[in-house]
Specification:
Keywords: Membrane, Transmembrane, Transmembrane helix. This protein has 246 residues and is mainly α. 83% of the residues lie in helices and 0% in strands. The protein has one domain. The protein has 10 helices and no strands. The longest helix is centred in the middle third of the chain and has 31 residues. The radius of gyration is 19 Å and the shape is globular.
């Protein structure tokens, strides 16, 4: 390892503990959101479709991966970190496919939450899953630029907070618009913790953090726009109608 690489590694390790703890905190919040939902009796595991179980396992796999990856980085085990990173691409693809499939099946089986329109739910499940996957790919592409890499990975995981927050907030009272923007505000707030860390350690907010915060707002804005488009509403209705007819 040359001097520049050694210096970069030392700089990376100096505040890795923060990113490890942030990853743990985000993962814990997501798990808590779903766990309390189940403990309150809103889930019947025996009647839950198999693809929902598969989706849940894939999501837990990702949360375990992001926590493990940050822990490995903190311990300086970059060789295993890289191997696990490449292997996680398969998990990301599984999450993308299972998320979009589960979203469509929820429409088909008329299991969309009553405070969402079908068009909104279709856009929500597809846009978030797609942006999550693309953000992870971007982070892996920038793996040699450590400061970008780890911040984009955190941002991708924060995107996955949406369904957990939807189970923690009083969504029936907030509704689709207010509830959706409230979730977005919380997601931006989580990344604001990272921005505060940036300012303290780097003397400025890192561009990847700003992009992540902007991404939360942009994703929700795109979902709102798509939900209002007649073509999306018609497609969502067609999914439900065709399944019922079959």
């Amino acid at each position: 390892m040359d001097f520049a690489a050694a210096q970069s590694s030392a700089s990376y390790l100096s505040d890795q503990r923060f990113f490890t703890r942030l990853a743990q905190g985000v993962a814990a919040l997501i798990v808590f959101g779903f766990l309390q939902w189940a403990l309150r009796g809103f889930v019947d595991p025996l009647r839950t479709p198999i693809w929902i179980h598969a989706h849940g396992i894939a999501m837990l796999g990702w949360l375990g991966t992001i926590v493990t990856q940050n822990s490995l980085a903190g311990k300086g085990n970059l060789a295993l970190h890289r191997k696990l990173g490449w292997a996680s691409l398969g998990l990301v693809l599984a999450i993308l496919l299972l998320s979009t499939f589960a979203g469509r099946m929820a429409l088909a089986m008329h299991r969309v939450p009553p405070f969402f329109t079908d068009a909104y739910f279709l856009a929500l499940t597809h846009v978030e899953a797609t942006v999550f996957a693309l953000t992870v790919v971007a982070a892996i592409t920038m793996r040699k630029q450590t400061q970008w890499h780890r911040r984009l990975m955190i941002a991708a995981t924060v995107l996955l907070m949406e369904p957990a927050l939807g189970r923690l907030l009083p969504m029936p009272l907030l509704g689709q618009i207010v509830g959706g923007w409230t979730i977005t505000a919380i997601q931006v707030g989580v990344l604001a913790i990272m921005a505060r860390h940036d300012a303290k350690v780097l003397g400025r907010v890192h561009p990847a953090t700003l992009i992540g915060m902007g991404l939360m707002v942009a994703v929700h804005g795109v979902i709102q726009v798509l939900a209002g488009m007649p073509v999306v509403a018609g497609y969502a209705e067609a999914i439900a109608r065709n399944f019922g007819a079959a």
